[in-house]
Amino acid sequence: MKKQVVALVALAGFLTFAGGCAKQETVKKEEPIAPSATAAKAPAPQAPAPSANAGQDNSRVKPETVQPDAAAAGQAAKADQAAKAAAGDAAQAAELKAGLEKVYFDFDSASLSKEARVRLGKDAELIRKDSGAKVQIQGNCDERGSDDYNLALGEKRAQAAKKYLTSLGVPADRLSVISYGKEKPADAGHDEAAWAKNRRDELVVR
Question: Whole-structure pTM over 0.70, yes or no?
């Protein structure tokens, strides 16, 4: 009798165990399939970032004002001033060159006449106006006399003019002298009228 009871208990336990396994298998088959790892990691689509100008009224946005380069403007101003100064210097040089007058001498003389002093006074005024001008005084003679004599006489005539100009306030370092003797006649004639034109000092801008 005890053996039959044990056998029944064992059979009941086996049936219970078998029923539980069958029930578990049924549940597993009905469970939904979990998404794959790749699908789980895929990022969700994002909305585009709003523009920096979003919400602004573009019609009211003013263009940026370009500031001029101060250094470039300064250089342009300096260049303009230099150009004006150069133009002014050129005008003064032209006025000086056109305004300088010749000085004439008597025969075999290096003395300045009254008329020669008046002319040199005008020359001195022009030279002083152009502070950068250098002037060469060229002494000349007529054809009479030897070459050496006329070279010496031309030197005396140029020195006489230089001395007078310096007495009128022209700096000596802006004046130079040279003698051409009878080598550069202003008139190629051989009479008194031609000789009078050749006995002269010429002032030339250098």
Answer: no
